Amino acid sequence: xxxxRTILDNHRSRLSDKSEVVIEAETSxxxxxxxxxxxxxxxxxxxxxxxxxxxxxxxxxxxxxxxxPNLYKVYGISQLLSHTEMAKNLSLPMENIYQALxxxxxxxxxxxxxxxxxxxxxxxxKEADESYAQTYDDFEV
Length: 141
Known about the structure:
Blueprint: H1 4-10, H2 14-28, H3 38-48, H4 52-67, H5 83-90, H6 94-106, E1 110-114, E2 117-120, H7 126-131
């Protein structure tokens, strides 16, 4: 007759196997990194007193233009994007997205090309772009 203790010692729970796999997958994943110019932290955040939502929207657009593969990077233009998708990705109501877009455009950080497509300055302000000799291949806003 088989000893019950031997059976229990050799038995492995299905739940513990799954949790081990998940833990291994999480620890082996490499985080992504986006390069943001220091002028954003040293000057823009101090001088412009952006709200949390404005920072989120600006960084969302900045990453789409300057930190991810983008055919229009030399012009500083984002691909056409859905405002609904942006609101979903940022977990914000559409009205907050529209208000933040208007505000960061008023500051001159972005310009609307057409609905869902934006020109985004590499160094956030026209003066900083000129200071760092940033050109946009003859794209004028």
